[in-house]
């Protein structure tokens, strides 16, 4: 099963590699935005996307993002995935 979690694009980190920083429920993660880029990458900042294994797979609106996060929390899947992401981020930063 594939799990796409809503994240908000907060910054472009490397335009040449089409990388951006996404905030996924408070966890910031670098993601590839090639699948959703249709113009200047800076135009993506502030938009919501479904994030799966480091890729922004599709753009969604804020209401859909909120509904999806709520449904995922209800299922308990988002918390487990977010915990794994936080552990991965901590390990990369040497805090593990």
TrEMBL record:
Say which family it is in: Belongs to the HupF/HypC family.
What is this protein called in UniProt?
Hydrogenase maturation factor HypC
Q: Do you know which Pfam families this protein is assigned to?
A: HupF_HypC (PF01455)
Biological process (GO), any one: protein maturation
Concerning InterPro entries, the annotation shows: Hydgase_assmbl_chp_CS (IPR019812), Hydrogenase_HupF/HypC (IPR001109)
Source organism, top-level taxon: Bacteria
Q: Which PROSITE patterns match?
A: HUPF_HYPC
* Function comment: Involved in the maturation of [NiFe] hydrogenases. Involved in the biosynthesis of the Fe(CN)(2)CO cofactor.
User: What Gene3D superfamilies does this protein map onto?
Assistant: 2.30.30.140
> What species was this sequence derived from?
Rhodobacter viridis
Q: Which GO terms describe its molecular function?
A: carbon dioxide binding; iron ion binding
